[in-house]
Amino acid sequence: MTHTLTPTAEPATDIDDVARLVTAEGRRIADPDLERWVADVDAAALRALYRDMVLVRRVDTEGVALQRQGQLGLWAPCRGQEATQVGSARAFRADDFVFPSYREVGVAHVRGAAPADLALTWRGESHSTWNPYDINTATPQIIIGAQTLHAVGYALGIQRDGTDQVAAAYFGDGASSQGDVNEAMVFASSFRAPVVFICTNNHWAISEPVSVQAKFPIAGRAPGFGIPSMRVDGNDVLACLAATRWALDIARRGNGPAFIEAVTYRMGPHTTSDDPTRYRDEAEVERWRRRDPLTRIESLLRAEDAFDDEFAQTVAQDADRLGADVRAAVLGAPSRPAMAVFDDVYAEPHTGLAEQRERHATYLAGFAGEEASR
């Protein structure tokens, strides 16, 4: 099953030829390929998805603020991509193993990451935060596309164990041009690995628009590797849930990998070191603001009399509580000694690490005189 485009001028940027179940105005529509995968999602389940998205947005807002205040070294905002992350992540089983990039704070939240885990990676005090095996989610990958190879390797291990778990890898539209991603797809297809590839097409790889590197829909590449694909509205949390269930079913039944292109938009900067006003048209941003994934589901719930002031207040309080917990974890994090950067890099010490430690100690000692003169 594929949802790809007939070639036109710039089909990679087209957002109309995607699978969806909820319009930007919050109206429920039918899709024969998606309907059956969310037949169990009632108003209560939809409210839970909405709550997830609100909480993720609150964490994202807190992360940006903490970085601006000097408490974090960097933050990669996910505002606007909450539906892609929450909808897909809610489709996984607890024993599936997920390999995210550096922007999937919503996936980490859904998988069970603690408040501190959601932010402390960006403080630069430690190599990682959560234990991957506690929540079956790898730590965020900063090397573009590398996690797709890791996911395929893990999936091959699942295959040899003879279980029905699935591995999944998240990556962006920019990463789809990396050799690692394409090599991972070749390997996954050749060995029918139980892995799901989730490409978050947020239209911008830092300052490069997707129309430059993908003249046709990214989902259209997967069938060339022998991988079924779907192009879905990444701002429709219900459609993202359905598409991921579809993909997981393929992989779980031993039919090999599946590919999802979730078409969404990065509302904020690439990271807090980026200024998107230098390369983006504000009119484009405004068009996507009107397709907000949160207001879309709120409108649908209101139309079904499943959204009232009490529910809104409860969700807002939960979001504020999580945001406060994230902030407290960051502000309360102790600063480690400078030499601790070498701790826990390798399981056992070796000469190369000892040499690096010695050189860094010498470097730090060079500042001792400056401190004494102040």
How would you describe what is shown here?
This protein has 374 residues and is α/β, with parallel strands linked by helices. The chain contains 13 helices and seven strands. Strands 1-2-3-7-6 form a five-stranded parallel beta sheet, with helices on both faces. A two-stranded antiparallel ribbon has the order 4-5. α8 links the parallel β6 and β7. The longest helix is centred in the first third of the chain and has 26 residues.
Count of runs of 4 or more consecutive helical residues? 13
The helix-and-strand class reads alpha/beta
Portion in beta strands:
5-15%
Unreliably modeled segments:
2-11
Widest sheet, order of strands: 1-2-3-7-6
Could you give a short account of the major beta sheet? 5 strands, parallel
End-to-end gap: 68 Å
Form type: globular
Helix and strand run? HHEHHHEHEEEHEHEHHHHH
Helix content: 40-55%
Rg of Cα set: 22 Å
Strand elements, count? 7
Overall pLDDT score: 93
